[in-house]
């Protein structure tokens, strides 16, 4: 019995040892650099058909016309089939000496500054209010976003009727409340024409900027504002010390985009004043259109387009560097 018992114990120990014995580890097979290179090549080949169409469109619709415009700006082409002559940088020299073009640059900058001072504080204020409005939010959104449905030409004609000195609603209201001295031809007065255009542009396009700012505000965690309020910060301190630094990357990008859009403004001015009165609303885009299509000076207009592109690119790069978030934080 003793030998049988010892044999049973040894058998059980053997079974336990076999149960806890670790399985032999399998060697992980590392992929060779050649295999990784083959995978990368296959991925690149797969991406080429998807990149080919955008690259072709970019070259056909932007790169080729851009270099064609540069070559055209160095000729004396007037838009006819006559032989053109190479004049070098003569159009650019004439452009530098053109007082009307310098005035158009100043008017463009004035348009940018006036619209910037009104647009962004107003859009930020409305977006901040919409963020805290729950019950009537849809009504306010409909009222604010409704003008964006109209085309620029329709909105421009509408505001021309509003500013009309004879039957426009502004002068009619001023006359009805006894302020006849304040009535004037709003778009016919050089001192008020640009302001009137800026108001129309903001009324029509502010909804887009409200949506973008509202999206930036939605990304800010509410816990940060609540923690600042619990620490005793006022509403203004929460807005200036918490919200604005976190929103500044979005605002800086929007500022650069608005500068680019301001440099290219054309439709509202062309519809409402056509650059008048006395050139007070003549901007770079309308002056270029006037020289190229009305004056048949296509080479001169091409030189103006190249200068406009250089100004927009240079100022956008400078603005992007000056409006970096780390500068705001400092």
Automatic annotation (TrEMBL):
Keywords: Cell membrane, Membrane, Transmembrane, Transmembrane helix, Transport
InterPro entries membership: MetI-like (IPR000515), MetI-like_sf (IPR035906), UgpAE/MalFG_permease (IPR050809)
Major site of localization recorded for this protein: membrane
Family annotation (CDD domains): TM_PBP2
Transmembrane segments: 46-67, 109-130, 142-162, 193-217, 238-260, 297-320
Protein's membrane topology: Multi-pass membrane protein
Gene Ontology CC: one annotated term: plasma membrane
Keyword Metal-binding carried by entry: no
The ABC transmembrane type-1 domain, residue ranges: 105-319
Compartment(s) of residence: Cell membrane
A Pfam family reported for this protein in Swiss-Prot or TrEMBL: BPD_transp_1
A biological process term (GO) from this entry: transmembrane transport
UniProt record similarity statement: Belongs to the binding-protein-dependent transport system permease family.
Name of the protein: Sugar ABC transporter permease
Organism encoding this protein: Candidatus Ruania gallistercoris
